[in-house]
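MOLECULE: protein
FOLLOWS: sequence and fold
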Amino acid sequence: LKVAAKHIAKDHDVYDCKYVGVGGLSYFWIPEYDLTNFIKDFKENILPVAKTLKECGKYFMYHNHDYEFITDPIEGKTYIELLAEHIPADLLGFTLDTYWAQAGGKNPAKVIRSLKGRCPVVHLKDYKVVRGENESCRMAPCGEGNFDFVDIEVPSDGLCLDQSICESTDYVVMNKGETKEIKYEISPLNS
């Protein structure tokens, strides 16, 4: 990634895209990895990439999943809080994923507000509890779960939201045998 940062920036120029993101880091998926090293390793391995991207006119974005809301046993803060605290705002923004924030036990609107000015892109996905034989929580189309999107869709409070991306990863089973196709939609918040 360090070597390719300038090329990645040029690739994003083709689409006139100022944001370059990573969809999570493998640190959280490796059972043997000591998460207490996360910030140190992030600074060592990812921060140089963010600096190069900034030099190329891009803003490096981190897309969360639920594991960034694990509380560090030493610091007593979540890993997303530690990233915001230890990595300068001009080098790291967040593409806050509303589904994964809620799956991590947090209110997405509150997380976005706590990262004020660092979430120019919000990844909107709803969170639905499905009762029955195979009870589970799953992604749902925006507005069909339990999350109040109105709470974050109004950018008048200075949150610096630039875009919202509405997504559902797959089809949602409505009733046994019935599915609903999900369409992808990107919409600027200020239009």
In short: Residues 171-191 have pLDDT under 50 and may be disordered. Helices lie at 5-14, 38-45, 47-55, 79-86, 98-103, 108-114, 150-153. The CA atoms of residues 5 and 62 lie 15 Å apart.
